[in-house]
């Protein structure tokens, strides 16, 4: 009699333990699947809500089987809510009715398992800085300019026209900003694609190589500093296939005149500096008498103390800096072509790194992308590798694994990434890595 009375109670207790444990496992798996779904939706919402929902369903299915522990998982339609701050709230809910094994004796043939998840996709203000130097026409992979154009357009297309913003900057002898940030959230993808199609890459000839990366970085920083209604996430992505050897400032000549332009060293150990070129153009010579094919060291009175291309009174970034931790620069007073050559090359690299560091200090992530084997070769009077500079610009934590760079890592500053595309086939994956990092930061 006692066993007859106790048996149903024992079966219910065993059923609670068994089916409850199964339900707990289903719930945990369902949570994992829903989390994956909302993250996938956040990554894909730039392509539209339909694309985001499709991505969510795909990742949901991949993370839980169609009959996990005799359950029937189902993802409800993803919901999107846009608030006044430009944030996208992405909500998902899912259920997985599960057949019971023992609780059915107590009338429970099925247990309902339900979960909810939410993530927020932040808008991003992206300054995209693209190398337009002629070396992209004549590198190890031949003319890769069309590849750079195509990959740049693919990259931009992954951002949302309605709430992200994109500013486009190109640089070679100087730098241009053909597409500044809009005054409102969003950007015109057609305009950016057209401007990328019109990239000049230093013209059709093969003039001496000018790489004025610091001018490109300054334009990116200026865009992010002056944009109205800035996003909480601000990013600079800069693409380069070599090392900086050119910088712009207002220069004083021995005859007392001044002119803002770009001056070049080169990639060799020594040489004859050349300039000036217009700082706000890809490849345009300064007018006479400020464009000097050779012998500019005999015409300059000195180097400016500060980088002052855009304002003669600007005093934020040093040109002359004898205390620079990597490349000290002293003034030039008619010391010969090699003396000026060395200083120009060092300043070109210093300014690029210094502007990147200032951006990080202001809460702007810097991501760097390099292409080709030249980045791994020592160039310039100090025989430095171009990729070392790109790693420092990003403040990539991988620096800690390199004894030559470990001391340059800034743990108190934002950390970005550097991706090296060893050849043109690796360019698309590197752009994809940049995108994945940015999307992770938006969530």
From TrEMBL:
Residues 125-422 form the VWFA domain. It comes from the Bacteria. Transmembrane segments: none annotated. Signal peptide: none annotated. Pfam families: Tad, VWA_2. This is VWFA domain-containing protein.
């Amino acid at each position: 009699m006692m066993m007859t009375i106790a048996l149903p109670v024992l079966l219910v207790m065993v059923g609670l333990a068994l089916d409850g444990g199964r339900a707990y496992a289903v719930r945990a798996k369902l949570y994992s699947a829903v989390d994956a779904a909302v993250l996938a939706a956040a990554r894909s919402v730039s392509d539209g809500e339909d694309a985001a929902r499709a991505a969510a369903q795909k990742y949901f299915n991949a993370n839980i089987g169609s009959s996990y522990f005799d359950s029937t998982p189902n993802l409800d339609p993803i919901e999107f809510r846009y608030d006044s701050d430009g944030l996208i709230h992405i909500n998902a809910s899912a259920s997985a009715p599960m057949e019971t094994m023992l609780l059915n004796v107590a009338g429970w043939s099925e247990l309902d398992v339900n979960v909810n998840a939410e993530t927020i996709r932040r808008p991003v203000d992206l300054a995209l800085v693209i190398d337009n130097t002629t070396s992209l026409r004549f590198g190890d992979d031949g003319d890769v300019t069309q590849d750079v154009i195509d990959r740049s357009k693919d990259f931009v297309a992954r951002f949302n026209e309605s709430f992200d913003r994109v500013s486009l900057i190109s640089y070679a002898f100087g730098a241009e900003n053909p597409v500044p940030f809009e005054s409102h959230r969003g950007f015109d993808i057609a305009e950016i694609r057209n401007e990328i199609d019109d990239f000049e890459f230093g013209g059709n000839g093969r003039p001496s190589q000018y790489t004025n990366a610091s001018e490109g970085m300054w334009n990116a920083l200026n865009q992010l500093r002056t944009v109205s209604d800035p996003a909480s996430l601000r990013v600079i992505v800069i693409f380069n296939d070599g090392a900086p050897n050119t910088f712009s400032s207002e220069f004083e000549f021995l005859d007392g005149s001044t002119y803002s332009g770009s001056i070049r060293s080169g990639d060799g150990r020594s040489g004859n500096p050349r300039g000036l070129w217009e700082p706000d153009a890809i490849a345009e010579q300064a007018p006479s008498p400020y464009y000097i094919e050779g012998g500019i060291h005999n015409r300059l009175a000195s180097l400016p103390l500060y980088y002052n291309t855009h304002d003669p009174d600007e005093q934020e970034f040093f040109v002359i800096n004898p205390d620079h931790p990597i490349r000290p620069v002293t003034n030039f007073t008619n010391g010969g072509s090699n003396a000026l050559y060395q200083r120009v090359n060092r300043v070109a690299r210093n300014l690029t790194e210094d502007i990147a560091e200032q951006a990080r200090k202001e809460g702007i992530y810097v991501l760097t992308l390099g292409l080709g084997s030249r980045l791994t070769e020592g160039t310039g009077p100090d025989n430095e590798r171009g990729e070392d500079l790109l790693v420092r610009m990003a403040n990539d934590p991988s620096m800690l694994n390199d004894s030559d760079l470990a001391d340059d890592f800034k743990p108190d500053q934002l950390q970005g990434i550097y991706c090296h595309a060893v050849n043109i086939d690796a360019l698309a994956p590197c752009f994809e890595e940049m995108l994945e990092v940015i999307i992770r930061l938006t969530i």
